[in-house]
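B., you asked whether I could sanity-check this one before it goes into the benchmark set. Here's the sequence:
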Amino acid sequence: MARDTFQRLRPLREGRGLLLGFGLCLTLAISFLSIYQPLLIHQAELRLYDIMLSGRTKPPQSSVPVLIGIDEESLQVYGQWPWPRYRLARLVERLHELGATVVALDFLMPEADRTSPEIVLAERQRDKQRVPAFTQSAPVDSNSRQLADALSHGATVLGFFFNFTESGIATHKSAPVLPEGMVVNKTTGSDAAWPRPSGIIRNISTLTVKVRAEGFTNALHDRDGALRRVPLLMTYDGTPYPSLAMAALLLASPDRTIHLKQRGAETWLVWSDRHIPLDAHGNLLVDFRSDEKSFPYFSAQAILQGAQAPGTLKGKIALVGPWAKGLGDFHLAPSGQFISGLNVHATIIDNILSGTFISRPSWAQGAELFAILLIGAASSWLLSRPGFRLSLVTVITASGSCYLGARTLLVAKGMHLSPLLPMLTPIIIMTVLSLLKYGIEARKVKQRNRDLIDAQDTIIISMSTLAETRDNETGKHILRTQHYVELLIRKLALLPKYSTLDENTIELIIKSAPLHDIGKVGIPDAILQKPGQLTDAEYAIMKTHTLIGAAALSKTIEGTGHPEGQDFLHYAQQMIESHHEHWDGSGYPHGLQGNNIPLAGRLMAVADVYDALVSRRVYKQGFSHEKASELIVQESGRKFDPEVVNAFIATNAEFAAIAREYADMSSEEAGQPPRPAVPGNALRHTLPAP
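And here's what the prediction gave me:
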């Protein structure tokens, strides 16, 4: 039972529970972003919407809207804009003659026409020019009257502009003209969230009293500057007013009744047999055609010059407005192109007549939130499991499914659900959990390496202690010499000459120090433990402990395939074989001289002799620290590397402290009877005996 419980808890212990918890926390954070979107997320969603919209298949285009543009050719022929209104009057008359059902003018004329002769004379008189006195109390704007007369001869719509600033102005006290018979039936609260204009800018009353309708030309740009939605109705002083496009449609149709219906959180504008979806602020999501000139287009100068046959515009809604690039009436479309305001109005008319609508259902945000939570939870569970391939497949499948699903809904059904955050959820979770996995695995590897190093160090100490048990020295000799070597090598590492001594090399040399006398396991007890002086023959055998130890490690090096292990054993082999070599070449086993002696051996030579000098044995008394230091300094350049001796001098106090801290117990302290002092074997042929 206990074993089963352990197996169930094993994934948690290995970090899976942590990964799962992080994944769920990330899911909640992404869910929060879906509700309170920062600007960057919102703009990314808009861009993704544009990409998906580009593949939408639309119904056949309506042939009703036509564009009459004040383009470059028109300006070249007739001069700068704005034109005199008598010319605009002629343009409107020509459009009615060509059979246009409705003519809509997409520009404002809030002032008198300053090109009218009467206005010119009045202004010159005002500016104290020498002209005949103007006899009337107010100048007559004959140009505007000509245009007003032309407007009254057919179904014409003028544009106006709603102002939303706090200091909104109204150029008229009277209300805009509604299409005759227009009725708006609305359910309670259907327009409660719609923006409320604070003012209105209209054309001069000379013109507005002669038209059949007026429509606002306001357009709503998103945060990235693109035009994706437009209002069809807006309420001003309690009365709903149509947009320019909507007013033109109403004039062209006998059905002028509009119903605003609210179904749950969704609002629908119902006109004729069309159910037009609106967002919470009363806007229509515009379904743009891909080609800017997808609607029939005529240059204004061509219309004025009579280049079209009678009846060319029969049954059409003629939209008249600026088209030349320099006139500025252009908007950034989702496709990334700039399109004219005329094209926007024509697209709205086309959307309504063709029945091609894009809606964002009231449940869209809830569906997106549910998708984030579901995908986040599933991704967290799957990605918390081991395996990169599983993680990659999970992310590709989840993100791809979100995009394809949302795109299919938009292309086929005209329903917009944003796939951005559901797509990003598995990607973000995989990224974070992969980093966490790496951290957890790195921590495990680090712990395993630490455990391995600890075990390795324990084995090293055990091996070296085993060698010491056959000698008259103690295990503390191992610790002392290791500390001495560390002091010396770290001091040398500060010198420019030894700048290549990195921390890894330093640690390997320090770690190899306890093995320096491991070859003594191959020396007979009769020689190793002899209390008196060794004979020359016995001493010759004793000296072979350097070769015995080196040969043993050489076989071990050949058998290991781990580079780090080989490096460590390599330094250990050098120290074992060369720590009895002398700087002047008088040492053993190879009589190496100077820098030909490996650094590990030169370090241990000083550390081993110092410890032999200051340590007390049953067969000898120890030197004082001062005397031992003096003897070592005397041998600098003969038995010892001068630079290592300099390092010894610089760390002299630390050497003394280590010798005291790790001092061996005396025979009396160990509970053994004292043995007579005999000149030490360890000092023979090294330094004079004490």
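One thing to flag: The chain is about 50% helix and 10% strand. Otherwise nothing jumped out at me.
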